[in-house]
Amino acid sequence: MNRIIIVLIVIFHLNIVKAVNECPTNWANYRDKCFTTVIGKTTQHDSLVKCQEMNASLVTIRSVEENKFITNYIKAKSMTGFWLGASRQNGNHHYTWTDGSELTYTIWEKSHPLNNDYTKCAYITEDSFWVSYPCDIGNFDTICEKRVQYDCSNMAKYVPTLYSQWIQECIIKESEKKIIIQLLNITDKLEKSLTSTSKNITDRFEEFKLTIKELENRYDVEKDEMENRLSKIDSNANRNTQNLNTTLQKVSLII
């Protein structure tokens, strides 16, 4: 029953609230990010500027899967290296991404990162490894990234799990946003109503099963009583028959 309710809710969401994740033209999509390349050897700073001009940032890699995607992306472009959005400050051996966040995943080339005074940036090779490198030497191309945008008006593939976050991500007019929020409230109420209805039906069904069980028990008791009565009647009938036969025999002897 619960599966049926879940399916109904999903269908309802699909018909009312659908969105498609969209990347700009010539950008590649991976999960919640869009990527594009800017070909031309440059310094890391100039790569940062090129990305910022597209309202993007230098590539950041947070997992082994994302690193694999970027590596395949590089190979498809037949390039040898791209700047990463990772760097460290003077006197600090600790790398961070351009947004200040920690490097929670790394795959440094053997002996890297180097901890000298001039290798403070990093690039990714076509073999997927990261190499520390001087920031001001223009030897690598650029990969920019930006967040996927969700177009709520083009309802096709995407059903959100976190409504409030999804609404903020969507590119829609304020009037359309209010309508979608209202629809989401309706679906939430419907889900609660269906859950309550399901519980009521389940409870009633359990009561029905108990009633059936009681009737079955009563039937078994009455059946046993009836069989006992029939057995007694049978026994009495046999006794009466025997008595009658005995009496008839006595009468025949007298006659």
Automatic annotation (TrEMBL):
Chain segments annotated as coiled-coil in the UniProt record: 198-243
Transmembrane helix found in the keyword field: no
Pfam families: Lectin_C
TM ranges: none
Signal peptide: 1-19
Entry keywords, A to Z: Coiled coil, Disulfide bond, Receptor, Signal
Stored CDD domains: CLECT
Source taxon at top rank: Eukaryota
UniProt xrefs under SMART domains: CLECT
InterPro entries named among the record's database cross-references: C-type_lectin-like, C-type_lectin-like/link_sf, C-type_lectin/snaclec_domain, C-type_lectin_CS, CTDL_fold
Residue ranges of domain C-type lectin in the record: 30-136
PANTHER family cross-referenced by the UniProt entry: MANNOSE, PHOSPHOLIPASE, LECTIN RECEPTOR RELATED
The protein's name: Macrophage mannose receptor 1-like protein
Organism name: Leptotrombidium deliense
